[in-house]
Amino acid sequence: MKVLNIDGVQQTPAQQQETQDLKQQLHDDPVVAKKFKENHIDERYYETSPWKIAQWRKDYEPCMHCTGLNQCKQRINGYYDDLCDNGILQLVQTPCRYKQNYMNQTSHIEKYLSNDLPKQMFTVSFDKINLSKETEEYLLVWELCRNASLHNQGLYLYGTMGCGKTYLSACGANDHARKGEKTAYIHYPTYCTRAISLMKTGEYKTELSRLMRAKFLVIDDIGAESVNEWNRDQLLLPLLEKRYTEGLTTWFTSNCDIDTLKEHFRYVGKGKEDELKAARIMERITSMAKIQTLTGKDRRKTL
After folding, report:
1. How much is the average pLDDT of 140-167?
2. Share above pLDDT 90 across residues of the chain, in percent, rounded to a whole number
């Protein structure tokens, strides 16, 4: 014999007993009781929706032992289904405390007009760098970079691969974005490739315009791109001219010293040489930015 029970669903006596046992189990569960209290959930749902509560309890279990986003076992990283009473008992997708903290720490990212920053650098800042084991050279460069950021001074930071140039420039960009300033960070080889893909439609001009007006801009890894007349004369040179004229802060990172970068811009296409264009670009860079070298160990190998 079947009898009507929860929500009009037919249940056998055995199923009805199972439901009653579940209700009691949920009543006795401190995790469920805490959630009901925190979210102001009516206790009538113990009677009307025990199976929905039980499903929530099962899905919530991994969150109780989680220590961070890298350990998340939910289907969407950092989000879990929370119990909410909106006249009916509902499961509402909600960021966990780790995700909420990350969102708070990265809220400044919305200030970026263009953003090629690696995600692991979204939260970095000068003040978060552990300086206790750093070399004297690095400490001097760190201080120079921080002061350049604070006082809106341009900077050309060059050195060997992996020595920390990108990290320091990311600190500067994030700190400006945290102050609410329109900021941009481009990985220059990636930007050039992106611009070429948009050249036929002319949409590359939209991003170029954003870069021209950003209050703080980082041009990362300049000199690593495949230079040609178009990206040199139609992208880089107008960008530098505009930012120089407007007095906007621009940082550059590169593996090239100034002389090497000048040689890089001299040759385009099949060995075609243009000393004047290269000199013009370098004059703008050296007028906009203080030149600083950074050497040392490859930090990427120690991560």
Report:
1. 95
2. 83
* Residue 292: band (very low, low, confident or very high) from pLDDT cuts 50, 70, 90: very high
Amino acid making up residue 302? T
Rounded to 5 degrees, φ, ψ at 240 are -65, -40
pTM, to two decimals:
0.82
Q: What is the per-residue pLDDT for 162?
A: 75
Over residues 91-114, the pLDDT tens digits come to: 999 999 999 999 999 999 999 999
DSSP per residue, the chain: --EE-GGG-EE-HHHHHHHHHHHHHHHH-HHHHHHHHHTT--TTHHHH-HHHHHHHHHHHHHHHT--SGGG--SSSTTEEEEEEESSSEEEEEEE-HHHHHHHHHTGGGGGEEEE---GGGTT--GGGS--TT--HHHHHHHHHHHHHHHTT--EEEEESTTSSHHHHHHHHHHHHHHTT--EEEEEHHHHHHHHHHTTTTTTHHHHHHHHHH-SEEEEETTTSS---HHIIIIIIHHHHHHHHHHT-EEEEEESS-HHHHHHHHHEETTTEE-HHHHHHHHHHHHHH-EEEEE----GGGG-
- 156: which strand partners? 252, 291
